[in-house]
User: Fold this.
Amino acid sequence: MIVRNLHECEEGNRKIVSPDGNWDSVRMLLKEDNMGFSFHVTRINKGADFQMHYQNHLEAVFCMSGKGEVETIADGKKYPIVPGTLYILDKNDKHMLRAFEEMRMACVFNPPLHGTEVHNAEGAYELEADTIEE
Assistant:
């Protein structure tokens, strides 16, 4: 059994802050935990407005607090995000994320992250060498 506390993870080495200041993420469950996915609690800062395109990962995001929107780039459709909203990037969707107020999100990634990743220029996380199947 694995048991972790959010506050302890924040104070430890599991908190990653984006270089652009748009978000920080507490990576509570990682690849090394051998669950097949990773679990993060992410804060999106008020006023954040940025593009992401997870080309190598699928992601499910549940809003715990705050308000914002997610926009799919392919069709320009905007979806409101409020507490209780779940959005799933099941087709590696290129998207914009906007925070009208600070948002706290619970995020699940497949394949799992190692823990120190930040977005590249495309808004994606790179795959680590041992994640790539041959």
